[in-house]
Design goal:
The protein is mainly alpha-helical. Helix content is 67%, strand content 7%. The protein is built from 13 helices and five strands. Strand 4 (172-173) and strand 5 form a beta hairpin. The relative contact order is 0.07.
């Protein structure tokens, strides 16, 4: 698990790098290499033409395949074979020479394959040889006093700490650096593989977990961008009403950008799995767009205006009919008087009803009137300045 998650892994060994250390490292790194090869084979199976083209490039050495892991460093403790322990620079030169000798090609096929496996799975392989801290620190009476630590050990420790922390890089997969949130997704997916027990997962399972985490990160990044942009346009905190056509056009432009972002990140693993993740992201964006559309409609000052039309027509008709009735009928006619009173009650009820309904949308109507007022003011100012120029 540490090999999968580390950008700079330190392999602590005792006294020297032994053959079993190399074989164990080769075993773990083989899973990363197999996962990468499985990914390449899946892509080649989906496109025979690309397969032929890629194979030609591979034969010519034109394609440099990314290695699954970044850096491995052997930390050899209790090293006793420095020529001059007081010369730290010379000691570092001996470290490099020692590693070159350890990784040098061997005649035996199994030894040769082990070394080739390690160098093909890591971008960088290094080692650091650390002397023993001194006999005093191993005694039960040791109190932790730094003065009892061997001076050479302290000098090498200082050099090693500077070397480690000055060369830290972010974790990357397929040469793309991960964010903290993305790394968390990978940790969750890799950890799930080990939940069943101590059985080591197959490389195909590792590839699937890596691809799933990558697809999840691609979806999250694209959806985050979509929601942030749409929140600014028509989110819950917006007060302005957008033309539905303008909102839909903004949605489509942002939709294309987010799909492009997803495709640029989710570029390895099973094609069907990537397409499923893409379809799920598209479905989520469409659902979110429906929500933003409803939020935008709720800010429409004329929304529900049809509620006013019929009552308003009845009220206006009642006023007109009452005016006609009062104008044409004589004062002594009881029928005209009753009709006039009925019409009076009708338009009073209607107008009170309209006032109550309008009060529920007072804020939206007020905002709309404010925008209209500002627009008229701007037009008036522009017209006045033009007249002055003339």
């Amino acid at each position: 698990l540490s090999t999968l998650l580390s950008s700079y892994q330190i392999y602590n060994v005792d006294k020297r790098i032994q053959e079993d250390n190399l074989q164990q490292l080769a075993l773990f790194s083989e899973y990363g290499k197999m996962a990468l090869q499985s990914n390449v084979n899946d892509d080649n199976d989906d496109d025979d033409d690309d397969d032929n083209f890629d194979s030609i490039e591979d034969e010519l050495g034109l394609v440099e395949k990314p290695k699954p892991f970044q850096r491995i460093e052997f930390l050899v403790r209790d090293w006793q074979n420095f020529d001059d322990e007081d010369d730290i620079d010379a000691c570092e030169a001996e470290m490099k020479a020692y590693l070159d000798n350890v990784l040098a090609e061997r005649a035996a096929a199994d030894l040769k394959d082990t070394r080739l496996q390690i160098t093909s799975c890591f971008d960088e392989v290094s080692c650091f040889l650390m002397t023993h801290p001194g006999s005093k620190v191993t005694k039960k009476t040791y109190t932790g006093d730094i003065k009892d630590v061997d001076p050479t050990f302290k000098a090498l420790m200082d050099r090693y700490c500077n070397r480690v922390f000055e060369n830290l890089v972010a974790k990357s997969i397929h040469r793309r650096e991960l964010t903290a949130a993305e790394l968390g997704a990978y940790i969750q997916n890799y950890a799930k593989m080990f939940e069943s027990g101590a059985q080591f997962p197959e490389a195909a399972t590792m590839l699937e977990a890596t691809a799933n985490a990558n697809n999840s990160n691609a979806t999250n990044l694209a959806m985050r961008k979509y929601k942030e942009e749409m929140d600014n346009l028509a989110g819950a905190r917006c007060v302005d009403y957008l033309n539905p056509e303008e909102l839909e056009q903004s949605h489509r432009n942002l939709f294309e950008d987010c799909v492009g972002m997803f495709e640029s990140i989710a570029c390895f693993g099973n094609i069907a799995t990537i397409q499923d993740a893409k379809n799920e992201m598209i479905r989520s964006m469409e659902e979110n767009f429906e929500m933003y559309t409803k939020l935008n409609d709720s800010r429409n000052p004329l929304s529900g205006f049809e509620t006013y039309i019929l009552p308003l027509c009845i009220g206006v008709g009642s006023v007109i009919l009452r005016w006609i009735t009062d104008f044409t009928c004589t004062s002594w006619s009881q029928t005209c008087k009753v009709g006039s009173d009925v019409l009076l009650h009708i338009y009073q009820v209607v107008f009170f009803f309209i006032i109550i309904i309008a009060a529920t949308k007072a804020k939206q109507i007020g905002d709309a009137l404010t925008r209209v007022k500002k627009a008229l003011e701007v037009m008036s100012e522009n017209g006045g300045s033009k007249d002055k120029k003339d």
